[in-house]
Write a structure and sequence with these properties.
Blueprint (H helix, E strand, L loop, with lengths): L3 E7 L4 H14 L6 E5 L2 E8 L2 E8 L4 E6 L3 H8 L4 E4 L1 E2 L2 E2 L4 H15 L10 E4 L8 E8 L4 E8 L2 E8 L3 E3 L1
Antiparallel strand pairs: 1-5, 1-6, 2-5, 3-4, 7-8, 9-10, 9-13, 10-11, 11-12
Length: about 170
């Protein structure tokens, strides 16, 4: 049987540990030519923690692990009996392989999570949601997608002032 992608249930919050357990068991069982990849899809996000901007890695599908494997009795048993694995997503007890389109959507979602996203356009009206200029309205002048920053034109005390803020600090009006 050719390799296909399958979905495993695991305990939420234990995905990385289960992934490592699977890889270790596959290697020790010498079936690494039949279990090709073990994937926990993640995306990077920026959050403010204690007033500082921090990049964090979030699991896209909590409680699920994706495994590309040639499914046979031995590989199925090794993966299924790995500590932390609840079971395969299945139909009548048989693991269901994912379609190519479904996996393309998963890979697309992973790639989206790597690219800094700024859903703003130059000339767009915004309001600053946090920081020293909170509550002020402005207009987007320049977008720096690689730094995830935006230069704004604000009207402060009757004068136009340009300020640079994190893209996470602003909202569309």
């Amino acid at each position: 049987m050719p390799s296909a992608w399958y979905i495993l249930h695991s305990y939420s919050g234990q995905e990385n540990k289960v992934q490592n357990n699977i890889l270790r068991r596959v290697k020790s069982s010498m079936i690494d030519e039949r279990v090709l990849q073990v994937l926990v899809p993640k995306e990077r996000k920026h959050e403010f923690i204690r007033g500082k901007r921090v990049e964090v890695e979030k699991i896209i599908f909590p409680g699920y692990i994706f495994v590309e494997m040639d499914l046979d009795e031995e590989s199925w048993a090794v993966v299924r009996h790995t500590p932390g694995v609840i079971g395969f997503v299945n139909l009548n007890g048989q693991p269901i392989p994912m379609t190519e389109e479904e996996m393309d959507r998963v890979f697309h979602r992973i790639e989206e999570g790597k690219v800094p996203k700024i859903a703003m356009e130059v000339g767009q009206k915004i309001v600053i949601a946090s920081g020293p200029f909170e509550g002020l309205n402005g207009i987007v002048e320049v977008i720096y997608p690689d730094k995830e920053k935006v230069r704004l034109l604000l009207a402060i005390f009757g004068r136009d002032v340009t300020v640079e803020v994190d893209a996470t600090q602003i909202k569309k009006v």
